[in-house]
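Internal ticket #5521
Category: modeling
Description: The requester needs a full-assembly model to guide mutagenesis choices. All entity lines are attached below as received. Residue total reported by intake: 594.
Assigned to: D.W.
Attached entities:
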Amino acid sequence: MAELTQARAPSMSSAVARFDPLPVFIFAMFAAAPFLASTSGAEGYVLSLLTRVMIFGLAAMSLDLILGYGALVSFGHAAFFGIGAYTVGIMASHGVEDALIQVPVALAASAFFAAVTGAISLRTKGVYFIMITLAFAQMLYFLASSLAAYGGDDGLTLSTRSLVAGSDFLENDFALYGTTLACLLGAYMLSRSIVKSRFGRVLRGTKENTVRMEAIGFQPLPFQLTAYVISGMMAGLAGCLLANQAEFVSPAFMTWQRSGELIFMVVLGGLGSLHGAIIGAAVFLLLEEFLPEILHAASFFLNDELRSRLSENWQMVFGPILILIVLFARGGVLGFIRRGSHG
Amino acid sequence: MADSLLELRSLRKTYGALFVTDNVDLSVRPGELHAVIGPNGAGKTTLIHQISGLVRSDSGQVLFDGEDITHLPMHERVRRGLARSFQITSILPAFSALENVALAVQARSGSSFRFFGNAAREEALNDAAMECLNVVGIGSRARVPAGLLSHGEKRQLELAIGLATQPKLLLLDEPLAGTGHEESLRVVETLQSLKGRITIVLIEHDMDAVFSLADRVSVLVYGRVIATDKPERIRANEEVRAAYLGEEESL
Ligand SMILES: Nc1ncnc2c1ncn2[C@@H]1O[C@H](COP(=O)(O)OP(=O)(O)O)[C@@H](O)[C@H]1O
Ligand SMILES: [Mg+2]
């Protein structure tokens, strides 16, 4: 894990100054996608898939803020997904259906959970930090599973999506897509600003050399804790969106596997770049979605029975592919692109 | 005795059965350059760790500027004007030399809980940082990632970072270790120019540098201070010669 967090992209300080067209391209693609979707004939499917990609991108990016820039390997980030989603679900079940109330409550709950668990777990380092964040997330998972009034293990179906100032425009898939995109863009710009700011510079410095930072007069904990809270709130927002996208809330949103997937997405896309996490989420979810068909098409030379077996057991191929990308594309997909563009 | 800026009282640190520093009493006067010499393993680095707060002392007291700082964490001591360099270079390798120093300036200029604005473009921070880099003589290397500097330049950068915290007292742990001849001259020159303006505790093996720079010298052997005196008296001290100088350096 130390290796994982230390492996770094080219010097941040100089990377900050250069203009990177890739994030612009990514957001332009997301903005253009609905128009392409409406010509595809399967717009509901495409929109919902891409909305999910953006929601997971938002959660993965929030994790990158502390993992890629602060070397804090939180193995419980899905807990914030759960907090956001359950806030929406529980409030809706009590008749509070407006996002203008739900979202602030979800953000406050996420911030509170992050502040309390962060204050404890940030006193530990390395593997212990990983284990404690995992333990807190598991606690929340079991709590959600035991909430019989809110569906327990089975979860909770939302009767409608959240209202916005009384209007039900989120019922429209395009509107939900647009709202998700706006949230992702807003969180991205905020994160970008944070990373470059005085605060972000201290966070990055602490990641590189904590003792040196203390020796020039910084106390790392308040900076790390603040970053952890900000990150938790962003992931909580992703949870609100996920509840609306799925129109369903369940403990499965915050399993440790989900937390692991988020870490994977960040590493897959490229640590410490923000938009890399979005790419990672996209690659992960799209592979997960299309790998069975891709396998089926790619194995045209096999007989039918083998072909269908292969596409049924696509996960056997999924794992190795992910591992290969991480192993051979150092710095994730982003590292791959960078090396390509530098010849 | 003149009022001291730094005073150590019976400071002790043990690792298991090993007394690394043992009942160290030391008093550093304002404005002086106080060298601490001693053979390898004498406990010099550990003593610096204890003064700077990186290592907790088992017993004894550290008084700085009239205040008992024995139990303060390192960052609090830095804020009171107690800076240090490391024997084993400790920098931020992926940050430029300038940003390494600018961060130290940032630490003492206003809140760092600012989430907007590009810190790397803050003129006030960069100008002050640039000044420190020029003092140590690596201003021309400001934009180079610190990890790519030569070993000697990294030592100079350490010094610049320390200066940037605007210390009253600077603890330097072997700033010349591993530097080439030119760089070493440059560092000695820098220290000469700082003398009198900043109080300095200098740990150094280069005896030429020590005896040309120091106002007073303390000799640490097996964790104990066996002598503190003017350089020429230390040179003549029989006990010191026997314990240390005689065997390691021909004077
Ligand atoms: N963390 C530690 N654990 C155990 N022994 C240590 C530790 N740090 C230093 N020592 C021992 O303390 C002694 C003094 O070390 P040090 O302070 O580095 O000496 P110097 O800087 O004078 O060469 C050495 O014998 C060293 O092995
Ligand atoms: Mg030493």
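Resolution: model delivered.
Comment from assignee: DSSP finds nine helices and ten strands in chain B.
Ticket closed.
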